[in-house]
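(Protein data)
===
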Amino acid sequence: MQLPDYDDVCRAHERIAPWIHRTPILTSATFDAMTGARLFFKCENFQKTGAFKSRGAVNAVFGLEEADAQRGVATHSSGNHGMALARAAACRGIECTVVMPETAPRAKVDAVRGYGGQVVFCAPRNTARQQTLDEIVAASGANVVPPYDDARVIAGQGTCAKELLEDVEDLDIVIAPIGGGGLISGTALSCRALSPHTQVLAGEPANADDAYRSVKAGERLVEDAPDTIADGLKASLGELNWGIVIRDVDDILLASEEAIIETMRLIWQRMKIIVEPSCAVPLAAILHHPERFADQRVGVILTGGNVDLERLPWL
């Protein structure tokens, strides 16, 4: 499949506009003081379904031809993409099936079902997700909407950085989490088109560092079952995503499990907003590398706020 470009992002933005929020950008004097930078937080935790994933899912679902759409859609997801796809399918009036690992947070499972999606559980391994999805698609004929390795999804996710760069001028850096690579790929497309001088950085859990190791090795590496609190970042980089990451992402910074949890808690305490562990990874990376960001204007994409309130990691 051909890599998407910024024109695809623009078309996606027009297509999804009626179905998503243009999310706000918040600042924090506390975090500015802690980092020595000027931070601008793009709050996708306020997005429809509580995460940026709605952008790519809506673009994929509403880009289907009518005959294809009637076959429904299917995917695998740890939660946020599944929720987004279930909602997008409901908005279009078609069926949706989501393969989820048995370890997925209950809040995300309930949300997928709440949006009308059917949940099929699998073992908590990336290979098990794909195998189960393949079986469902073979039986149903549903359209597969991958969570990240898909040009439609990447273009939709790129609308987040597009809005950020339109709303905040002269950013030196934009940083987002990296897992499968849908968001960081789309972010890179928008940054290279709208603000070529802006560095594109990714934050990744040290316990799920396949993207970091892939860049160092010069080839895409796959990890099947990483163990990290950041459940939304367990997936390995997709092939399309790797093509954009190796070309357009300037660096990947790692964050420890302890730093992710502490940063998540700090965001709750200082900014008074709910974010999930995956969402805290970029700021955790910034706090661990303050010299990299000092005196810089930095856009930070806060990716989502879907967290099980009964199982907060600091309790």
Notes: The radius of gyration is 18 Å. The longest strand covers residues 199-205. The domain at 6-51+154-302 is CATH 3.40.50.1100 (Rossmann fold).
